[in-house]
Sequence to fold (183 residues):
Amino acid sequence: MRQRVALLKVFGWGLLALLAACGPAKQPDARITLNAAGISLQLPPHWQAGLAGDYTLLSAHPLDAAGQAVPGAVFFIERDLSPSAPGVPALTAYAEARAASIQSLSQELRQLQQTDTLLDAQPAVSVLREYSDTTGSYRELAVMVVRGHLGYSFVGRTRPADFERLQPDIQSILDGVRWIPAK
Fold:
């Protein structure tokens, strides 16, 4: 009986040590799959993800050295119906609608750059802009894609002072986006 109790204690302590080793440690570059949207992406190890609702499919925040969210910094994916306009390509109409939406909510909006690009081989528009609203000033890199009748916005937003430091993370997230084929 004593051997059995001792063996159970050793097993229990071993199991606790294993769980502690696996628990809070983050996996490097965690891949997140959003099956319903057909998207997977990779977050850097110091970013924390949370699923959102309605139009926002995912939001993720970078963590500082103390494990706290960096104020004003977020990466999110939004999905909504792509507007259509006669004679206007769907991607152009979607990018213009997103810009109008941000303009309506901001006090100042400056578009710094707009380029045609690809997001996992899908035609996209990339926009770098600065704006301010009631919560502060922001710089964001937004990549917009239209698939079917849905528009997707992949947005990395930070306070202007943090953008240069966090831009490589935002770009690595965008570079890690993969479209999952429908089954």
Q: What stands out?
A: Residues 1-27 have pLDDT under 50 and may be disordered. Helices lie at 2-22, 90-105, 160-175.
